[in-house]
Amino acid sequence: MKEKNNVWKSIDLFAGIGGIRLGFEKAFGDLITTNFVSEWDIPAQNTYKANFPNSKIYGDITAKETKEAIPSFDICLAGFPCQAFSLAGKRMGFDDDYKGKCRGTLFFDVAEICEKHKPAVIFCENVKGLKIHDKGRTFEIIRTTLIELGYQVFAKILNSKDFGVPQNRERIYIVAFRNDIDSSGFEFPRPTNSETKLAQIIEKDPVPAKYYLSERYLETLIKHRKHHEALGHGFGYEIRDWNGIAGAIVCGGMGRERNLLVDDRQEDLTPTTNIRGSINTKHIRKMTPREWARLQGFPEEYIFPLADSHTFKQLGNSVTVNVIEEIAKNIKKVLASDRHLKKKFIKRK
Fold first, then answer.
1. What is the CA radius of gyration of the chain?
2. 251: Cβ–Cβ under 8 A, 6 or more apart, which residues?
3. Looking at residue 174, which CATH number applies to its domain?
4. Residue 113 needs a FRET pair 20 to 30 A away by CA distance; which of 13, 158, 219, 289 works?
5. pTM of the prediction?
6. pLDDT in tens, 332-348
7. 298 domain-assigned
8. Cβ–Cβ < 8 Å for 172, 130
9. What is the mean pLDDT of residues 260-284?
10. Interval 89-98 mean pLDDT
11. How many CB atoms lie within 10 A of CB 236?
């Protein structure tokens, strides 16, 4: 299966910065190649290209010309956006467009592409809330759509903290095998390592002063938290224990404010950015982009060429590579053991 024509061909839709692709490449090694990439966000494209320089990246996957550019493939990777499942605004729900189901949900663009190309595997990742969104109707429509396309569907919520990264991040993973493939032996991975703590991913050297909160900003966060506590809410900043784990990192500002650290190793707290007042004397700082990258399982050599603001957003929107890799290993086992598929695949030119 190492011959060139026997390499599994994948497409990377809603590719972000390449986290899903990276997880599959770590699991499949030289038995997988990516022959199509789609990502509309330009900053994300820049980070993707920095790490996969030979990739041509297409933009809007809903565009006809983009879909027509997709070559044949075996594995569809699709971390379709969770925002599409908000029913705010017109509240059209699932009563329109693709086969009478939904206009606004990008999942159905994935379905349309896979209906045409009939890949061996469809892999999707999304927020945990997808399982219960609209009282479970959203997920059931996704599951039913995949079944109607001719796939056996597996889905499970997994937590990143169980796979070697100190981040409490629950996500739903969907794996669909084409019906002619014997997927009876597939199972989602069991936890591999739940013992990793923040101290193991924190920068070894003192971090620059720019990551430390100003006194004025810290006071604002304290007042903000007290206000919400008075209202009975749990909303507010959080300081994490080095011997504990982080909360889920997200692209918004509170993804950083809910994952603060006390770090007194930096002796020079002279402001290097345009802040109001001085840096706080409690040594409270935000995590660095590299620390966030480690929380998501990205290797040290992964390149983040843009400003911190872009990098934080991209990592908050990305996936945990460790989890993807473990799922991909189990997908690989199914593909390798299916005799019918192997015979058909070896004959393919």
1. 22
2. 312, 313, 314, 316, 317
3. 3.40.50.150
4. 158
5. 0.90
6. 999 998 655 555 554 44
7. no
8. yes
9. 93
10. 38
11. 17
Reduced to 3 states, what is the DSSP secondary structure of residue 214? strand
Is residue 93 over pLDDT 90? Answer: no
Which pair of tokens denotes residue 100? 């009478």
The residues that are catalytic are 82
Domain that holds residue 43: 4-195+315-347
Could you give the residue ranges of the DSSP H alpha helices within the chain?
A: 19-28, 42-51, 64-68, 107-117, 137-148, 215-230, 254-257, 289-295, 308-317, 321-337, 339-347
Q: Provide the number of structural domains found in the chain.
A: 2
pLDDT digits (tens, 9 = 90+) for 295-318: 999 999 999 999 999 999 999 999
Query: Helix count (H) and strand count (E) of the chain?
Result: 11, 11
In angstroms, the CA 232 to CA 182 distance is 51
Tell me the two tokens of residue 309. Answer: 């603001």
For residue 339, CA distances in Å to 118, 137, 294, 332 come to: 18, 36, 38, 13
Q: DSSP secondary structure string, 25-59?
A: HHHHGGGEEEEEEE---HHHHHHHHHHSTT--EE-
Distance, in Å, from the CA atom of 206 to the CA atom of 204, rounded to the nearest integer, reads 7
Q: How buried is 99 (Cβ within 10 angstroms: 0-12 exposed, 13-18 middle, 19+ buried)?
A: exposed
Instruction: Report which residue type is found at 149.
Output: L
Residues in the chain: 349
Q: Which amino acid is at 295?
A: L
Q: Are residues 260 and 343 in the same domain?
A: no
Q: Do 208 and 272 lie in a common domain?
A: yes
